[in-house]
Amino acid sequence: MVHAKHRTSGAGWRGAAVLVVMLGLLLAGLPEGSARANEAPASLPCLAVRAEGVVRAAPDMARLNVSVRAEATSAGAAMQDVAARVARVLAALEEAGIPARDIQTAALSLGPRHEHRPGQPPRLAGFEANTRIALRLSDLEAVGGLIDSLVAAGAEGLSGLAFDLADSTAPMDAAREKAVAEGLRRARLLAETAGMALGPLLELREENGAPSFAPMMRAEAMAADGVPLAPGELEFRATVTMRFALVPYGE
């Protein structure tokens, strides 16, 4: 029994040795690059570039905040007065053809109004009610005339006038395409200058972008009726970072 176990153990060791030798022969027969396939990218030099694409587009809408204020000796009277003024402003908006979906009450406040005199404590002088209406306007040519109508209807404050695009998908995509094309151009130039060829793209990352205002005088186009306005242009910027492998020419 003991001798049989020794013979079995020796046969097992000899079989393992044969497998090791066969595995070594198989690996030696593989192409040289196969055994190092996972190590190749790490051994190559890399090039990183940052590029920007800019596209300009004329706005097709505007945003505007309208404020209405009223003062009275009592809180109820102040609220009634501001409500009547707001009703006139809303009527002016309806007459101008502004759809209800583009009109929103953005703020409403009511508070005491105090008088301050030297050497005396503050004295309650009445109450003040304020409201703010946010507008979205799609007819840019009519904005100037609309502002005049709102002031005549009782609006006491205008703020936040901003021009925008209802859908910025197309210009943003065009800016992204420009950014990637510029990144490729710059990377090829740098690689060739360094005596290398541009290898595969290893990383592509986009930075967050937002539209910005670029002056473009068009006041004369919007001054036919009401306050002259210049909508300008919107700049859409896309910035990308690209990382490439560099390889010697001919590879």
How would you characterize the overall build of this protein?
The protein has 251 residues and is α+β, with helices and mostly antiparallel strands. The protein folds into three domains: 1-30; 41-58 and 168-247, Translation Initiation Factor IF3 (2-Layer Sandwich), CATH 3.30.110; 61-164, Protein of unknown function (DUF541), domain 2 (Alpha-Beta Plaits). It has five helices and eight strands. Strands 1, 6, 7 and 8 form a four-stranded antiparallel beta sheet that branches. A hairpin with a 7-residue loop joins strand 3 and strand 4. Helix 3 (75-95) packs antiparallel against helix 4. The radius of gyration is 37 Å and the shape is elongated.
Topology, pairings included?
Blueprint: H1 2-29, H2 40-43, E1 46-57, E2 61-72, H3 75-95, E3 103-115, E4 123-137, H4 143-153, E5 157-164, H5 169-193, E6 197-207, E7 212-214, E8 233-247
Antiparallel strand pairs: 1-8, 2-4, 2-5, 3-4, 6-8, 7-8
Helix pairs in contact: 3-4
